[in-house]
Write a structure and sequence with these properties.
Blueprint: E1 2-4, H1 8-20, E2 27-30, E3 43-46, H2 51-61, E4 67-69, H3 76-89, E5 93-95, E6 108-112, H4 115-121, E7 127-131, E8 147-152, E9 165-169, H5 175-184, E10 189-193, H6 202-210, E11 213-217
Parallel strand pairs: 1-2, 1-4, 2-3, 4-5, 6-11, 7-8, 7-10, 8-9, 10-11
Helix pairs in contact: 2-3, 5-6
Length: 219
């Protein structure tokens, strides 16, 4: 079994399968974008496959009989490669995707469809917690009229493309920690993708508590 992972759900799935099926070979594939990722039980493979054809070749070489896509809900490229590879090899594909967050009473959301729409929805003079992933920061580079607080799991390898910003290194905390962060940085807006799940929801709850606007990028 090959699990395309990198999410909490993938780790939990791998742990459950290794525990319940000790005679199975369970492999989790990680993209390798974080320096010290949490490693799930079973075998772990780090790095890309080389597109759909490379993934198909890996499925054949390792005699994979079941493929599970448990990647991030916005990981569209690898999910598309998984569909193509599974179809070409004839391996069953299952998708494990956490449901998106839903607006609750007290939420002030501006819902948009793309990163570009999120960028354009930020008012001039805003102080923004930008939590969209390191690969998508360039879309917001032209907003020199906005102060960005950028959260990243690992320190960036290159200078960030913002005129006015500061970095927060680390994973999201609980609601109290997120509330304190938003208040200390005098954040007026949160920009994020609708990833779903519990791991990064605290910032949404904190924004609700403080009455802040969340610019939410839909799936």
């Amino acid at each position: 079994m090959l699990i395309l992972g990198g999410t909490r759900e993938a780790c939990e799935l791998a742990a459950r399968l290794v525990r319940d099926h000790p005679d199975w070979r369970v492999i989790t594939a990680l993209a390798g974008r974080t320096v010290a990722p949490a490693l799930p039980p079973g075998e772990v493979r780090v790095g890309g496959f080389g597109g759909a054809d490379g993934l198909a070749a890996y499925l054949r070489a390792e005699r994979v009989t079941r493929l599970i896509d448990a990647t991030h809900p916005f990981a569209r490229t690898i999910s598309a490669h998984a569909r193509r590879a599974a179809g070409s090899v004839g391996v069953p594909l299952e998708v494990v995707s956490r449901p998106p967050w839903r607006r609750e009473l007290g939420d002030d959301w501006t819902e948009v469809a793309t990163l570009a729409e999120a960028r354009d929805a930020i008012p001039a003079g805003a102080r923004v917690l930008l939590a969209v992933g390191s690969r998508h920061l360039g879309t917001f580079a032209g907003r020199g009229d906005v102060y960005f607080v950028v959260r990243m799991v690992d320190p960036p390898r290159e200078r960030l493309p913002f005129a006015d910003h500061e970095l927060v290194i680390g994973k999201p905390g609980g609601v109290e920690e997120e509330t304190a962060l938003l208040a200390a940085k005098r954040i007026t807006h949160v920009v994020c993708r609708n990833s779903g799940g519990e791991a990064s929801y605290a910032k949404i709850a904190a924004a609700r508590r403080l009455g802040l606007t969340v610019i939410m990028i839909g799936r």
